[in-house]
Design brief:
mainly alpha; two-stranded antiparallel ribbon
Length: 160
């Protein structure tokens, strides 16, 4: 079980880290004023500061246990965590394999994993939908919009 307090603190730490990365990366672009006007990193810098300040507020809020939901001791039960992992793990694998096999094969694998593994659809139907998904992506993006989606290392090996 994950407590609400731990979940709030972890989320605030994650968003605070994101805000700090935005602040640090905006310093490379320059902050402040130049002869041409506002430097390119000024607005991302201010946005990052706002994110960091909001995260610090959320850490304090979560650590002190104040608010209307402070009485909730358990935020995620083991069964809810399994359901969440059932959505997150295939999505993380999908994103990780795109550089290797490309968008088309990765999307087919993701759709099949999401439909067939938790038994939401029969294997045959999941295979049909998984085959139709990259075909639809190809027609819409490569043919209609003429935007090339990532082909990955496998596509490069086959000359795409």
């Amino acid at each position: 079980m994950i407590s609400r307090r731990a979940l709030e603190i972890a989320t605030a730490a994650l968003t605070g880290t994101f805000g700090a990365v935005v602040v640090i990366s905006s310093l490379d672009n320059g902050i402040g004023w130049s002869s041409a006007g506002v430097d390119a990193g000024t607005f991302p810098f201010l946005t990052g500061i706002i994110i960091v300040l909001g995260s610090l507020y959320n850490v304090a809020h979560g650590a002190l246990g104040r608010g209307t939901l402070a009485i909730v001791r358990t935020a995620i039960t083991p069964s809810e965590l399994r359901r969440l992992a059932g959505l997150f793990v295939p999505a993380a694998i999908f994103v990780a394999v795109i550089p290797l096999v490309g968008m088309y094969l990765a999307s087919a694998g993701y759709v099949f994993a999401v439909l067939a593994v938790p038994r939401r659809q029969t294997v045959l139907r999941a295979l049909a939908i998984a085959a139709a998904t990259p075909l639809a992506l190809y027609v819409v993006f490569e043919r209609m919009f003429q935007v090339s989606l990532p082909h990955g290392a496998l596509g490069a090996a086959f000359g795409f």
